[in-house]
Amino acid sequence: MDVYLAIASKRDQRDYADTPIPEDLVRRILDSGRLSGNSQNRQRWEFVVVETAQQQLAETVWQPRNVLGAKLVVAICGDAQGIDVGRCAQNMMLCAWGEGVTSCPNGIRDQDAAAEICGAQVKLVLSFGYPARPRNPESRPAEDWSARAKRKPLDELVRRV
Ligand SMILES: Cc1cc2nc3c(=O)[nH]c(=O)nc-3n(C[C@H](O)[C@H](O)[C@H](O)COP(=O)(O)O)c2cc1C
């Protein structure tokens, strides 16, 4: 998928189909996190794939049902700071969306419990799955997706000095 189209059509979705995500795609999603540029290339992160503890981890985020219904749950853990976590998360989510898998970032409500489950400080939890209500990015041009997105207009965000 064209990169701009992927960015423009990507919405954070919270309802996932039962269809499992193939292992090779799971690997590409995780590898997209690994490849992320980061501060001084220190790579101060681990990607914890939460399987048997999915239900317990769900209780530690703000919207448990996002995690409970997910077909892949990845906790970005470690000492990585804001911009690094953001780049890593977006890389994983865009890689997934490029292959039809949608996702949502999840903030942590109970840091201590999440750290206990994952064995490290949890910065962000990503829930993934094929969308319960399929959306075809190719059904409209990127410019249409952009115009439909609930975002401030570019004119309000861009200044030239
Ligand atoms: C750091 C971060 C934390 C977020 N935490 C949550 C969350 O706890 N629960 C949730 O449902 N969505 C969460 N979101 C998703 C935002 O609500 C979402 O990005 C925003 O509503 C835009 O959604 P859209 O792209 O579908 O328009 C989070 C997003 C970010 C960037």
What descriptive keywords fit this protein?
single chain; 161 residues; alpha+beta; NADH Oxidase; four-stranded antiparallel beta sheet; 8 helices; 4 strands; binds flavin mononucleotide
Structure write-up:
The chain has a single domain, classed as NADH Oxidase (3-Layer(aba) Sandwich). The longest helix is centred in the middle third of the chain and has 17 residues, at 82-98. The chain is of the alpha+beta class and 161 residues long. It contains eight helices and four strands. The N and C termini lie far apart (34 Å). The chain has a four-stranded antiparallel sheet with strand order 1-2-4-3. The chain is 40% helix and 14% strand. Bound molecules: flavin mononucleotide.
Secondary structure: number of strands: 4
CATH superfamily: NADH Oxidase
**Secondary-structure-derived class:** alpha+beta
The succession of helices and strands, N to C, reads: HHEHHEHEHEHH
